[in-house]
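Recap from last week: sequence in, structure out.
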Amino acid sequence: MKLLLFDIDMTLVDTGGAGRMAMVKAFHELFGADGELGDVSFAGRTDTLILRDVLGVHDIRWTREVEHDFQQRYFVHLQEEIVKPGSRAIKPGIAELLPLLRQRPDCALGLLTGNWREGARIKLQHFGLYDFFRVGAFSDDSAIRSDLPKIAAARFCQLWQQDISPQNVFVIGDTPLDVACAKPFGARTIAVATGSSSKSQLEAASPDYIFQDLSDVQAFLKMIV
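Predicted structure tokens:
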């Protein structure tokens, strides 16, 4: 069996900034501030670390209670933002690729994402993609992204009642951080230049495979061996 772990934002879908806007609104609602997120980086990072950095910009102390309260407001705003008109789209090749992978008896589809689990559900259900994925690892599981491949693989083993070698786990993402998080676990990496990172920036991270996008579905399928 092969376990394919997909990143969400800019790998599977482009939410048109719905997540960032929902965070701005949740922050403003919770803290009465202007909602300014500063220069905090989002790409390839977990929601928990993003929140901690934003809190730091405003000299607000992180606690589990603060994160929980923020999450509840964020999920409400994300549900509202994701349905608004805008540049929201499924990334090239994904709509064709996922059904074909699901049909393969040697492949299991999962998520490896910096999103909180509920945020991941909201985003992917909007695009009709959530039900393709049976396992995953999320920011709820660990703020450290390199912890997530091991967590997702353990959930695969539990659900499918079989072991899996790290070499049969593929992490697919659009940032150097997606590539980097897989290396300590020993998973193979597939980089796609569909986000803010250029192909040359992704190549510098030394992924096992790299694509401009996943529109060449057959080339991707042939690679999963």
